[in-house]
Amino acid sequence: MKSNDLIRLTNSCYWSVQTESLFVDGEYAKLSISQKKLFKFLVKNINRPVLNLDILYELNDSQEREFNEKSVRNFITGLRKSLPCVNIVNIYGGYYMLKSEQISRSLKIKEQFFEIIEQSKNPIVVTNPNEYDNPIIYVNEAFCELFGYEYEEAVGQNCRFLHGNDTKQEALKQIREALSAQKPVEVNICNYTKEGNMVYEDLTISPIFDKQKEQLSYFLGIYKDIRSVPLFLEQVQKVL
């Protein structure tokens, strides 16, 4: 075993690129076909978030067993317990990451970013404009409570799934123009819950840039439920 063949994960844990093996405290760790496939993929993307679905595709290629999104999560959880020296973290938005000890400051900042917005009482959605169709990569608990969707149901979709058949709103045109120009926008919009109930909201969308790379990283959407406003105006019209 050559030292230049090894990738250091922690003080006691190394991955051999040549033999595709994991060594813990100098001893060979026995891995299943699927576990070895997972490590190979995560080491290739070390210190970078990888999507749950990408891991799913990799594992299903192992032909050892059939996986789905839930079983992938359970599989990784089991691996964490059996190999606690390996630092595989779950990142909001359906991502996992294998961390080495030399994790960059920028990744820590991203984790803190999602931890902060999770605590917001306002419904919040984060999308990734660098992926096809600008999919949702994160929603907080307040979002799930307002719209009635589970986290897994929302992530991966474009926000248009909330519009239902109400697709001719002027606000949607304003949103599209702002996203295209990478500029912030605030609109009043009608969306719909999972059960089909209308939610009238004030929506603020802000582009989030990576200042070091000068590149657009996310769109951050913050909702404020203002259903009482049109109901109030309706009552006023009845009185007048």
TrEMBL record:
GO terms, biological process: regulation of DNA-templated transcription
Keyword hit for Ion transport: no
InterPro entries: PAS, PAS-assoc_C, PAS-like_dom_sf, Sig_transdc_resp-reg_C-effctor, WH-like_DNA-bd_sf
Domain (PAS): residue spans on this chain: 109-182
GO MF entries: DNA binding
Domain PAC residue range list: 183-238
Record keywords: Chromophore, Flavoprotein, FMN
Pfam families, per the entry: PAS_9
Protein name: PAS domain-containing protein
